[in-house]
Design brief:
Blueprint (H helix, E strand, L loop, with lengths): L2 E7 L3 E7 L5 E8 L3 E3 L3 E4 L2 H16 L7 E8 L4 E4 L9 E2 L7 H10 L2 H8 L9 H11 L1 H6 L2 E4 H10 L3 E3 H4 L5 E2 L4 E2 L1 H7 L8 E3 L4 E4 L2 H7 L6 E3 L4 H8 L8 E5 L3 E7 L12 E3 L5 E3 L2 E2 L4 H9 L4 H8 L3 H11 L1
Parallel strand pairs: 1-6, 6-15, 10-13
Antiparallel strand pairs: 1-2, 2-3, 4-5, 5-8, 7-9, 11-12, 14-15, 16-17, 17-19, 17-20, 18-19
Helix pairs in contact: 2-4, 12-13
């Protein structure tokens, strides 16, 4: 059977769904994890947790009775902006700097002084340079952790890291690169000027492939660790919000969709983006050579998790015993109010 195993790697949880080749849902699970936060600007996590959680999800799939030989392909849709510097062996050199992390604000201000905002926007699709943008984080590492910077073989994003863990290859894809500030989204190439401004070697960025590319099969080592077959193929997907828009059918002009996850994101597809609009919004690479406007608000669904853990701390254990979502119990409580 040619089943497809897909992972949505979010800010605070990993969702896993196994589809048949006709996209019938065969199995689904999710596992939560926590990010470390500090001083209102630090947001990080041990990168190994992502792969460990991935492995747990795979085991849950196999424990459901699915045979590993029946999983023909694996793909990831992940958050953008999360940066993971690795050495030549793919080992993380520090904790993953999560997309919410803004410690690199000074570096962002430096970059702003070196390039016109309009030029940056028309090239990268990002209308502002702040401490959360990967190019700022990358410069932060070079300035504040030069020893780590010198050891870096590749600066990976989250999807790139998981692809490496399964294939041993340093690969990225276009839509997630659009979140970095170092990628030219219309020219579909690295933004040379940005690397010159930050004095950073382009060689530290992985190979960038189109979404939906077959990278290769699972390595022997990864097969042993995860339980997957070494014949399972690993496919590039897309940044989570782009994938969400595609899944909702938002692939042609005139369609607008909204997604509520950790952040609230609106998507509007266009053939050619207008970079001269009075109120600029983020633009990403999209399906079939299209582009997508994506204004967003960073705090949305994550508030539900805070509510669950702070106001209803007892609900997790009760939900587990009943085999339901804790949010279902909270909704039931709200209906009685």
């Amino acid at each position: 059977m040619k089943n497809i195993l897909v992972f949505d790697v979010g800010t605070t949880s990993m969702k896993c769904i196994l589809y048949s080749e006709k996209f019938k849902e065969l199995f689904a699970t999710s596992i939560e994890y926590s990010i470390e936060t500090k001083d209102g600007i630090i947001a990080q996590i041990d990168a190994n947790i992502y792969f460990e959680t991935f492995t747990e999800c795979v085991q849950a799939v196999l424990n459901s009775g699915i045979k590993k030989e029946d999983i023909s392909a694996v793909s990831f849709t992940t958050q953008g902006e999360t940066l993971i510097p690795v050495d030549k062996l793919g080992n993380p050199l520090c904790k993953a700097i999560v997309w919410l992390d803004t410690r690199a604000q000074k570096e962002a201000e430096y970059i702003k002084q070196k390039i016109l905002t309009k030029e940056f926007y028309k090239t990268t699709g990002l209308y502002d340079i702040d401490g959360a943008v990967p190019i700022s984080k990358l410069l932060y590492i070079r300035r504040n952790n030069p020893t780590i910077y010198d050891m870096v073989h590749k600066f990976l994003l989250l999807e790139d890291y998981l692809i490496f863990k399964l294939t041993g290859l340093f690969i990225s894809e276009k839509s997630i690169q659009a979140s970095t500030g170092w990628y030219d989204i219309t020219g579909e190439k690295l933004f040379d000027k940005m690397f010159q401004i930050c004095n950073i070697e382009k060689e530290k960025i992985p190979c960038i492939l189109p979404c939906g590319t077959d990278v290769g099969t699972v390595t022997d080592e990864a097969a042993v660790i995860t339980g997957l077959s070494k014949n399972t193929h690993v496919i590039t997907a897309a940044m989570d919000q782009v994938s969400s828009a595609i899944g909702a059918g938002n692939v042609t002009e005139g369609i607008v969709t909204e997604t509520t996850g950790t952040a609230l994101v609106v998507g509007a597809t266009v053939k050619v983006p207008d970079f001269d609009i009075s109120k600029p919004v983020t633009v990403y690479k999209h399906y079939n050579n299209m582009f997508i406007y994506m204004p967003y608000f960073p705090s949305a669904g994550i508030v539900h998790k805070w509510l669950r853990n702070t106001v209803f701390p007892e609900v997790n254990q009760k939900a587990e015993s009943l085999g339901v979502s804790p949010y279902t119990l909270i909704e039931d409580e709200a209906k009685l109010s």
